[in-house]
Write a structure and sequence with these properties.
The complex is a heterodimer of chains A (197) and B (151). Chain A has 4 helices and 9 strands; from the N terminus they run αβββββαβαβαββ. Chain A is of the alpha+beta class. Chain A folds into 2 domains: 81 residues, no CATH class; 107 residues, 60s Ribosomal Protein L30, Chain: A. Chain A has a 4-stranded mixed sheet. In chain A, strands 1-4-5 form a 3-stranded antiparallel sheet, with no helix packed on it. A two-stranded antiparallel ribbon of chain A has the order 2-3. The two termini of chain A are 38 Å apart. With 151 residues, chain B is of the alpha+beta class. In chain B, strands 1, 2, 3, 4, 5, 6, 7, 8, 9, 10, 11 and 12 form a 12-stranded mixed sheet that branches. In chain B, a hairpin with a 4-residue loop joins β10 and β11. The longest helix of chain B has 19 residues. Chain B is globular. Classes of the chains: A alpha+beta (197), B alpha+beta (151). The interface between A and B is large, with 66 and 59 residues. β1 of chain A pairs antiparallel with β12 of chain B, so a sheet runs across the interface.
C-alpha cells in the first residue's frame, strides 16, 4: 500500500463521520506513449497532472495529494473499467477518380479493408468525413466536403451498410492531409475519411 | 468472399437494429454502447432502460452498472468512456459540431470507476471536456486517464 493510501486510511479512521468523497485520478500515457494533461480543480485550488501515472487523490480535509501510481496499482483498481474500453476508432481514406463517382483502384481495396474492420467490430458505426484542398473560402468548401461525404455514404449504403449506421460530416479545408499554401490545388486533400467506431 | 462478409455484416446490423429499435431516436444520439457486461442499465427521463451492445446514448442519460457490470461507450467525436462495476456515470452535456469540432462534453462520475480516452472535442478546445466527481472538476486537455470515486 503506498504511503498516501495509508495516510488516507488513517485520516478516514480518525476523521470519523462526514468525510467528503475520496476521489482518485490517474493520468495514463496513450498508445504512442504520449501523455496529456488533466487539471483537477476543487475549492482548495488546481492540481495539474501531466506526467505518466501521476495521481491526484482528494483528502478528507478537501485537499489534494499528489503521487505516482505503479501499473500494478492501476490494474488493481481499474482492471474492469480498462477491460471494458471499446476498441479504438480506425480511419480509412478514400479518393474518387477525378470528375467521377468511382473510387480509385487503391480506394476500392481500402473499402474492402473497411468492410472487414466493420465485420470485426460489435455494433459498428461510422462517420464519413469529407475534406477539400485549400482552394476557396470556408463556406463553399464546407458544402463541397459534405457533398463528398454524402456521395460516399450512398455508395456504402449500396454495399449493404444501413444508412442509420453512417453519420456524415464536412470538415471543409480545416484538416488538409498535405499542408499547402492557400489556393493550391492538391488532389490528395480532396478525400473522404471514414472513421470506424 | 466479399458477399459472405456483407451478409454477415447485414445480419449483425439487423440484430442490433432490432435490439435498439424501442428506444432509438437517431437525431439525438451521441454515442453507443460497444461493450456491456453483467448488469448495465440507462436512466433516461426517470425511466430505467436496459443497455446492451448497440444501445444508443443521448445527452443527459445516466449509465449505471451493478456489482458484476462494466460498460464501454464510443461517442460521435470518438471519445471513449468505460466504467467498471458499481458505477454511476451521468452524461450532463454533450454537443459536437462535426465541421468545426467545437463542442462540450460534461459528465459526472457519481461513484465507481471510469476510464477516459478523450476525442475530437477535447482536442479542438481545451476545457470543452470536463469530468466531475463529488469533490472536484477535471479539466481535460487530453487524452487518457482514470477516475475512481468512493461514494
Amino acid at each position: 500500500m503506498p504511503r498516501h493510501c495509508a495516510a488516507l486510511l488513517a485520516a478516514l479512521v480518525m476523521g470519523g463521520c462526514a468525510t467528503p468523497s475520496q476521489d482518485l485520478i490517474v493520468l495514463l500515457p496513450d498508445k504512442e506513449g504520449k501523455v496529456g494533461t488533466v487539471i483537477v480543480k476543487n475549492p482548495k485550488g488546481n492540481t495539474v497532472l501531466n506526467t505518466a501515472y501521476a495521481t491526484a487523490q482528494t483528502t478528507s480535509d478537501g485537499g489534494v495529494q499528489r503521487s505516482t501510481a505503479s501499473q500494478n496499482e492501476v490494474q488493481n483498481v481499474f482492471s474492469s473499467a480498462l477491460a471494458a474500453q471499446p476498441p479504438r476508432p480506425i480511419s480509412f481514406t478514400l479518393y474518387f477518380e477525378s470528375g467521377t463517382d468511382e473510387f480509385t483502384e487503391q480506394s476500392k481495396q481500402e473499402v474492402k479493408r473497411l468492410l472487414a474492420e466493420m465485420a470485426r467490430r460489435q455494433a459498428p458505426d461510422i462517420t464519413a468525413i469529407g475534406h477539400t484542398d485549400l482552394v476557396g473560402p470556408d463556406p463553399s468548401n464546407d458544402a463541397l466536403s459534405l457533398q463528398r461525404a454524402e456521395r460516399v455514404k450512398s455508395i456504402l449504403v449500396g454495399m449493404g451498410i444501413p444508412a442509420e449506421r453512417i453519420l456524415t460530416a464536412g470538415r471543409g479545408r480545416r484538416e488538409p492531409l498535405i499542408p499547402t499554401a492557400d489556393g493550391v490545388t492538391e488532389p490528395r486533400n480532396r478525400r473522404v475519411e471514414i472513421s470506424v467506431r | 468472399m466479399l458477399s459472405t462478409r456483407l451478409i454477415v455484416i447485414r445480419r449483425l446490423f439487423l440484430a442490433c437494429a432490432c435490439a435498439i429499435a424501442p428506444i432509438a431516436a437517431w437525431a439525438n444520439d451521441i454515442g453507443q454502447f460497444k461493450v456491456a457486461k453483467g448488469a448495465v442499465h440507462l436512466e433516461r427521463g426517470g425511466q430505467r432502460l436496459p443497455a446492451r451492445v448497440g444501445t444508443h446514448l443521448q445527452a443527459t442519460d445516466t449509465v449505471v452498472t451493478g456489482a458484476d457490470g462494466a460498460a464501454g461507450i464510443t461517442f460521435i467525436d470518438n471519445s471513449l468512456l468505460s466504467v467498471g462495476p458499481n458505477s454511476v456515470l451521468a452524461i450532463e452535456r454533450y454537443a459536437f459540431n462535426s465541421t468545426t469540432h467545437e463542442g462540450e462534453f460534461e459528465s459526472s462520475l457519481r461513484k465507481g470507476t471510469l476510464s477516459v480516452v478523450s476525442g475530437k472535442i477535447a482536442k479542438q478546445s481545451p476545457d470543452a471536456m470536463k469530468v466531475k466527481t463529488p469533490s472536484s472538476i477535471l479539466g481535460v486537455r487530453g487524452t487518457e486517464f482514470l477516475v475512481r470515486t468512493n461514494d
